[in-house]
Design a protein that fits this description.
The structure is a single chain. The protein has 323 residues and is α+β, with helices and mostly antiparallel strands. The chain has a single domain, classed as Jelly Rolls (Sandwich). Helices cover 30% and strands 19% of the residues. It is built from 9 helices and 14 strands. The protein has an 8-stranded mixed β-sheet with strand order 1-2-10-7-12-5-4-3. Helix 2 packs across helix 6 and helix 3 packs across helix 6.
Length: 323
Amino acid sequence: MSESRIPIPTVDLRPWRGGGPEVRARIAATVDEALQRAGFLLVTGHGVDPALRAGIRRAAREFFLLPAEAKAAYAARVGGRGWLGPGTEANGYAEGTETPPDLKESLTFATHEPFEDPAVNAEWYAPNVWPREVPGLRPLCEEYLARMAALEKELLALLGEALGLEPDFFARHMDHPTYGFNINWYPGVEVVGAPEPGQFRIGPHTDFGTVTVLDREAGRGGLQVHTDDGGWQDAPYDPAAFTINIGDLMARWTGDRWRSGRHRVLPPPADAPAEELMSLVYFGECTPGTLVESVPAPVGRVAHPPVDSHVYLRHKLDSITVD
């Protein structure tokens, strides 16, 4: 990938945890500026073992290489639990763009704890479906998701302080989130075929929720980020870092002070058609029923109408589903 000129800084969480007021204020200001300009950060010092991430990739790849009929036993729709096969999802639809389906497969998981409200359970709690053929995947993912929950809480406290608000301003709305976790497999053209015009591994879109934590691999057909002044550019990459971006609900919450980071994943490159990548994507979400109201000026810049977090999420998930 070419060198990126996008203003996406790297934030080390270690001095944030242990630094004094001046250090923390400097980090908070860096975060605020980056989320205003691009909606993206790189984060190091998170403490998540690279071996855990590598183990998930190995186990998930075993699943993705199974015959299609074996994977079909776990087939799910977008927003469900299980396998999202080829042709299931087109993220460009979220922007109102008619695009071919995304060139990927996914395994998708979410909360393992049911809610007290039966109606919420019916809508948002479907038990996770773990592939029998790859028994090692479940303990790896459950450990990873526990680490993601802790990291998300830390990031939300940082975001609250970056806005000059109390540290639990966001976190208090996420005591029992639905969240989402996708393992996205981007195989080469020998699996997905030659890309159609306007077809991507993931089409241009913004995420829907609060904070996304992405563990990705570098590749020529990898992540690109869009900014107003630079257009589409390759996202910076650091194998030790997580790529963090905020979604639509967080942007609304901040009154559009921060932008929901627009991004896409390029198709398999013509000069490396067999390239295979895999991403681990944790989508932060709120507790169902959270009312997202824009922070007023001078922090916020646009007063969006209040929205129920999960009414919004359901609409967006439905919008990217290929019927």
